[in-house]
């Protein structure tokens, strides 16, 4: 019997299913010719804000711009420090440096691979002091102020945002959620005694609508969500050359708008997002139930009160590279998110980090492997992935 071929992602299958809808969207846009700031932009922003439980959503050109504009909107500037994690896509740190600030890393938890509350506390207590006169938290060695912390909701799993927000508030530091992989993720907030969404915590949150995301555009796109009207207004200006009214520029801004076409596509897809997320959760339950039976496989940890949306399903294994090669030879595509932590990337060698600086992130980078995970993954395809992983470890034990 011929082996089942399992692609890592199958966007072609999805777009084939709804091709007629997307063609109609494009036809309507051609007829209106509202390619920039068309009606669909405002409609999507309203619906996405409702989905996230926020007062505002501002469409922008990418998730990277969403992070950058979020930082600039709270006054982050040259010489400031912004804390984040090394186990993330480089866009998180790029936004920090593009705002003129310096990224400082803290390690992640072993189980969730999200920001460690303990390491964040350690950084603030051991490497910083709070200046009572200015109300700023200052890095002891550099003398630079710490302006913000960006926890990353990695792989669709929310970081411990309640605890992070409480610590940040103690030190007068803003919290910006990197929700670029967490569309629809939730957690039970002990502070507010209710379920809360990714995107409604902190000063603002950044979302990416890169095509492969849970909510993906047909190109680059992003959004910022916030409950702060001043931040919302500032980001609207930043994305559109600093103008509040056409040709009247109050600040120098960027060309970072969300295209009408992408907004229209996203507006259409948003109707199905909850259903797609539920499908991802069911697939994750099957993966975890079966793969947890294999001693050499560590499945994703889900803390009590956390409801991830599994943008990625990432396991940790020994002999990762050998497993990946074996799976590919048997028709199963996988991916690595991410093989080199940011502090060891050539792009950031000037910060002087070395191996061993963030041991959990470094260890995870050598053990993680992302399995096929999307709402169009068929039962026989998932079964093939599970069976081949079982075969690989059975033959080695």
User: How many domains would you count in the coordinates?
Assistant: 2
What portion of residues is helical? 25-40%
CATH superfamily of the largest domain: Type I PLP-dependent aspartate aminotransferase-like (Major domain)
How far apart the termini lie comes to 26 Å
Task: Tell me the series of helices and strands, N- to C-terminal.
Answer: HHHEHEHEHEEEHEEEEEHEEHHEEEHHEH
Kindly provide the name of the CATH class of the largest domain. Alpha Beta
The largest pleated sheet is described as: 9 strands, mixed
Number of strands: 17
Q: Label the CATH architecture of the largest domain.
A: 3-Layer(aba) Sandwich
Poorly predicted segments: none
> Which fold does the CATH topology of the largest domain refer to?
Aspartate Aminotransferase, domain 2
The total count of helices amounts to: 13
How does the overall form come out from the CA principal axes?
globular
Strand content: 15-25%
């Amino acid at each position: 019997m011929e082996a089942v071929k399992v692609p890592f992602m199958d966007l072609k299958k999805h777009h084939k299913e709804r091709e007629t809808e997307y063609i109609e969207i494009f036809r309507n846009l051609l007829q209106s010719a509202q390619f920039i700031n068309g009606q669909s932009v405002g409609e999507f922003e309203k619906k996405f804000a409702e989905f996230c439980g926020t007062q505002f959503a501002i469409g922008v050109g990418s998730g990277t711009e969403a992070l950058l504009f979020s930082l600039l909107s709270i006054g982050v500037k040259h010489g400031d420090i912004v804390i984040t994690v090394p186990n993330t896509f480089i866009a998180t740190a790029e936004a920090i440096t593009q705002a003129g600030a310096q990224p400082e890393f803290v390690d992640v938890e072993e189980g969730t691979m999200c920001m460690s509350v303990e390491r964040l506390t350690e950084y603030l207590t051991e490497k910083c002091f709070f200046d009572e006169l200015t109300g700023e938290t200052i890095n002891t060695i550099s003398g630079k102020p710490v302006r913000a912390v960006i926890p990353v909701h990695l792989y669709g799993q929310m970081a411990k945002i309640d605890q992070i927000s409480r610590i940040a508030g103690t030190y007068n530091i803003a919290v910006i959620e990197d929700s670029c992989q967490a569309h629809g993720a939730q957690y039970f907030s002990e502070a507010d005694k209710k379920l809360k969404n990714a995107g409604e915590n902190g000063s603002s949150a950044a979302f990416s609508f890169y095509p492969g995301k849970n909510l993906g555009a047909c190109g680059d796109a992003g959004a910022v969500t916030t409950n702060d009207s001043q931040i919302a207004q500032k980001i609207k200006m930043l994305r559109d050359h600093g103008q509040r009214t056409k040709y009247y520029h109050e600040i120098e801004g960027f060309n970072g708008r969300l295209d009408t076409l992408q907004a229209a596509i996203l507006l259409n897809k948003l109707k199905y997002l909850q259903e797609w997320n539920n499908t991802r959760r069911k697939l994750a339950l099957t993966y975890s139930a079966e793969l947890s039976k294999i001693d050499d496989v560590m499945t994703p940890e889900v803390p009590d009160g956390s409801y991830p949306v599994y943008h990625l399903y990432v396991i940790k294994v020994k002999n990762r590279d050998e497993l990946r090669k074996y799976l590919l030879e048997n028709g199963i595509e996988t991916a690595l998110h991410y093989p080199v932590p940011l502090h060891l990337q050539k792009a950031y060698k000037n910060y002087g980090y070395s191996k061993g600086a963030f041991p959990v992130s470094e260890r995870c980078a050598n053990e993680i492997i992302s399995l096929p995970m999307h709402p169009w993954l068929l039962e026989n395809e998932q079964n093939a992935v599970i069976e081949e992983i079982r075969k690989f470890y059975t033959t080695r034990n």
